[in-house]
Amino acid sequence: MDEAETLGDRIAIMAAGKVKCVGSALFLKSQYGVGYTLTIAKTPQPTAEQSRALDSLIHARCTRAERLSDVGTELTYRMPFEESGNFPELFQSLEQQPERYGIQLFGVSVTTLEEVFLRVGRDHTEADIAADERLQQASFVRQISAEREERAMNSFTQAVEEMRRSGGSQMDEPLTEARRAESSVSFARHVRAMLVKRFHNARRDRKAWCCQIVLPLIFLLVALLTMRFAGIGDYEAVPLSATSLPGPQRFVAGFGESVTSAQVADFLKGASLDVEQ
């Protein structure tokens, strides 16, 4: 933070992912009311009268001074920037009468950006706490409303049950028929509404209508025409011969007992085969 105060022309401070303030170091200090820090070193055992006199003097000269800490012999005050014009009189009184106020020495320093950063974070935390409280209050109100609605519903249910018990079973059938009739009418109304909705959607979206209806019909028509006019051609017969097969081939043929050698020779005519019997 010291480097940012020394080198930064404009400084931005974020809290919970949001930029809370942007500006120069002096602007941020004045905006968040940090100001100066007055540190006073008291005597080892100051009296109560000396402490009261010192506090009265500081608040008389700087009405908006705020005590930060009083630990041991060290006393710290926060002095706003607007009170800087009253510092000479205050310092002169402290220098002239140190025994009266029970002090040894004092010093003034400008508040660092670290305190500004902590102040911004503290303000953000307080805002979150306030928001949580509002949410809790709203949740409490909703809970009360829900309880009231539940009590009203329970009362209504009890009243209906009492009416049913007092009316007997004569009311059951008409109510059931009316409920069924209403259910069927409601279902038909829903179907009609869905069909009307689909019709209007298809009418608006012409591309989808073409892709779903027109293009499939065109493809089907083209396929039927192709099958109708593309005839099967007559191809040249390919003779079947064992000579077209690579290398020697072995075939097994079986003949009956009454077959003569002339018939076998006639069967194997034109084939360059080695016959084994």
TrEMBL record:
It comes from the Eukaryota. GO terms for molecular function: ABC-type transporter activity; lipid transporter activity. InterPro entries: ABCA (IPR026082). Keywords: Membrane, Repeat, Transmembrane, Transmembrane helix, Transport. GO terms for cellular component: membrane. The keyword Repeat applies. The chain crosses the membrane at residues 208-230. This is ABCA3 protein. It comes from Symbiodinium natans. The lineage of its organism: Eukaryota, Sar, Alveolata, Dinophyceae, Suessiales.
